[in-house]
Amino acid sequence: MPEPIITINQLSKTYHTERGKEIKAIENFNLQIYVNNFICIVGPSGCGKSTLLRIIAGLDSASSGLVSFQGQPISKPSRDIGMVFQEYSLLPWLTVIDNVALGLEFAKQSRSVRLDVAVSFLKMVGLEDYARAYPYELSGGMQQRVAIARALANNPQVLLMDEPFGALDAHTRILMQKELLAIWEKNMKTIVFVTHSVDEAIYLADTIIVMSSHPGGVKEVIKVNMARPRDRANPIYGQLASQILCMLEEEVTKVK
Amino acid sequence: MNPWVRLMSKNVANICIMLILPLVFIIIWFYLAKSIDNTVILPSPAMVLQLLSHPSENLISMGSLTNNIFISLLRVLAGYILAVMLAIPLGILMGYYAKIFQLFNTFVGLFRPIPPLAWVPLVLAWFGISSFATLTGVERGILFIYLNNIKLSMVFIIFIGAFYPVLTSAIYGVKNVKKTLIDSARVLGASESDIFFKILIPAAKPSIVNGMRIGLGVAWMCLVSAEMLPGSLSGIGYLITHAYTIARTDVVIAGMISIGVVGALMDTLFRIFEEKKFKWQRLIR
Questions:
Q1: Domain ABC transporter spans what residues (chain A) (predicted)?
Q2: What is the total count of domains within chain B?
Q3: Do the beta carbons of residue A82 and residue A160 sit within 8 Å?
Q4: CA of B194: which chain A residue's CA is closest?
């Protein structure tokens, strides 16, 4: 058995509301993520999926428990762990290519290296013709492709994705899922992908983590053993979907 | 139709619309002046136009309109530049660090409602008629004439006027930077100084420049009150008050119009700069 690249051990996160009330967002969460895995985390809204991802990214800290990357505890953001956000996060005053080169700029790479790398990643997401455009000139799907290129240009070991296609229309979303798989197969990164769409999770993931809510924890770990590209018309696809939807329904009704 | 011709005719139409109200205003002024028939109460537009069309002519032995405007501009710029230099860094720090905001906000907020003019007695007690010449130690020559015209008391009044709009817009410019932008820079490996110089400042720039534009407008408006202070012997504001004491209402109005035109001109320059530089900001809405 290889060593996991990310280990989450007994993770808990508690918030305090302004009235001093304690809210348990995540409790006793355990997960091991292995190199080159494509993990999807699904769960009802408010189950702490995004919080979990932010803790792995080093943007938030755990209340207790340990999250480690290659055996080292994560305490702050690092270049080894990239992230793509749900909201558009490109810098609106920079051109597309400068946005993609941003991580390399922070790493103090020379301009020529930055541009070379950025161009190659723009090609990968099929947007090399838009290098000199500004983000506002691009559609939502294109902006998210640029955000993915930007995260990958930094050459992270792990890519975290927080509902990156949540704001896109259904058709664009399916196209983006295909493209993401192609990129993943080319680059072989480890991806942790948060979504509330069961369909998206089954289409993408090696392993689906179904989260329980209030507080968030691991409800079920499901291995998806279907060959890619996955066919949505396959009966196994539908069975898996209804099985996961049932679990989510339990979680949602539990709250009421 | 040729697109150039269409563009031209559209521009001509726009200019015509803009000119309607000023023309109506001047016509009413003309008839009022004629029926009142007293140049101290209301001089005719023609008299004022006569003054404005010879801006470099000596008026009421106080120098020309252009010369007085130039001196006023120097004063405004002195106070304004000081205000901008202090307000922008302070505003950025207050916008980003909650602790610094708490430290300064109440204190700075106490002074905000005080009209710049209310500072006059205190400012006179502090600075009297000392000027930039006193500060720099220059005692003769053409430089002395200009420096001596920039009284510390005036600079202070103008400073107060310009300070708050610039400060407020810098604070809110930084506070309103989308958190996702900062987070995404962090995961890309940005250091604290990267966050400051490559994210916060560029993101807040449109708001800061907008505050600078408003601040310059307020600074310019504080001018007349600043130039009414003792020790002032020149400047467009002083020209107006002096003209009033010798009942030269035409000079008063010509001075007022000059203030308006110069202020509007500065504002327009800023606006053009903003539109050119911050196209992205209008378009992301």
A1: 6-240
A2: 2
A3: yes
A4: A106
